[in-house]
Amino acid sequence: MSVVVVIELQDGAIVPMSWEALVAGGTAADALGESLIAVALGSDLTAIEAQLSAKPVSEVVLLEHPLLERYTADGYVAALASAFAELKPKLALFPHTYQVRDFGPKLAARMGRAFVSDAVGLGVEDGRPVFVRQMFQGKFQADVTVEGEGTVFASIQSGSFRADVLVDGPASPLRRLDVALSADQIRTKPLERFRETAGAVDLSSAERIVSVGRGIKDPENLPLVEKLAAALGAEVAASRPICDNGWLPLERQVGSSGQTVAPKLYLALGISGAIQHVVGMKGSKTIVAVNKDASAPIFEIADYGIVGDLFEVAPALIEALERSS
Ligand SMILES: Cc1cc2nc3c(=O)[nH]c(=O)nc-3n(C[C@H](O)[C@H](O)[C@H](O)COP(=O)(O)OP(=O)(O)OC[C@H]3O[C@@H](n4cnc5c(N)ncnc54)[C@H](O)[C@@H]3O)c2cc1C
What is the pLDDT of residue 195? Predict the structure, then answer.
């Protein structure tokens, strides 16, 4: 038995979130007393062999086939289902990427198993993996276990495990498994991969950011945030609902489906601190949060927290900044 971590590639390069899933897998493998196997799929994986086998894994397993050159859910599910029939993993982990969201549950269903998506933590109790999942916008955390015999499938949310603890070492053994795939098994034809347009604003290089969330209530109130940003010499950013509503352009969204930022100052106004937002800004040097709910999760990562109404705090900050300039 083993713990398998499926490594994702984009344009031949390993997607960094895969390393976080590998760290999660290593933790689980140690606690379960199982070996750790990294699995990658593609048409020719020679270029990433050395990079993968340097990681602290028991084994690297490569699934190569011309039909795996471009991602398709059918191809990935067929290849992984046959590999898993041979490897019989106790636990199979994936990075929680868009691609995994597409094929992961299908793979689990093919094998008659459930799929625990978007886990932010992973432990082991009584020899069984226990996942932590966020509920109600991060207000609660639920421990989740999977019933029954067979592989337990789960995806790991970005930022939940630190990839920088992975240290390269001596090369681990590497093997290729036969992949039986035929074109008629694949019912979709991949076209060009969607690329987001290069944003006019590069939030990733901003030194100061004033970020606004649903606490702003109405787009008519945004000038208050813009005024505070101007007073601080900061860029304006937002949580996803603000951009989804079209109140600010998409390129200003911070989080797992937006930009990742690491400014010296991140001032979060009326943002609850959902994991998908936090993963995009937790690398900020100083985080200041203004929220009227003292139990908002954003305060867990804030260096300075103001429990209060942003419509009172922001004007007071603007006034103080204008007075001091
Ligand atoms: C696949 C997926 C990807 C996602 N990607 C992202 C992403 O990239 N970025 C992102 O941000 N989210 C993302 N989300 C959404 C995320 O889960 C949260 O829903 C979102 O971050 C919540 O935004 P919010 O904090 O602005 O709103 P809410 O969660 O509604 O929080 C509003 C906060 O404002 C506070 N508030 C209200 N009024 C005031 C006031 N007058 N003064 C002060 N505080 C006040 C409230 O107490 C509350 O904490 C994603 C979700 C999914 C499922």
Answer: 61
Which residue's CA is minimally distant from atom 51 of ligand 1? 276
pLDDT in tens, 153-192: 999 987 678 787 899 999 999 999 999 999 999 999 988 8
At which residue do the structure tokens 């795939």 appear? 181
Domain boundary pick from 185, 219, 252: 185
For ligand 1, atom 47, which residue shows the shortest CA distance? 293
- Tell me, yes or no, whether 293 and 215 share the same domain: yes
pTM value is 0.69
Distance between Cα 263 and ligand 1 center (Å): 20
Residues in contact with ligand 1 by the CB-under-6-Å rule are 137, 213-215, 239-241, 253-258, 270-272, 274, 276-277, 280, 290-293, 296, 309-311
**Domain ranges, residue 231:** 203-324
Is 287 domain-assigned? Answer: yes
Residue 300: which CATH number?
3.40.50.1220
Conformational region of residue 126, where left means phi above 0, alpha means psi within -120 to 50, and beta covers everything else: left
Do 147 and 10 belong to one domain? yes
* Residues of the chain predicted below pLDDT 70: 137-139, 159, 194-200
Which of 134, 152, 185 marks a domain boundary?
185
Tell me whether residue 194 is in a domain: no
Closest CA to 207 of 234, 244, 247: 234
Query: Cα(98) to centroid of ligand 1, in Å?
Result: 20
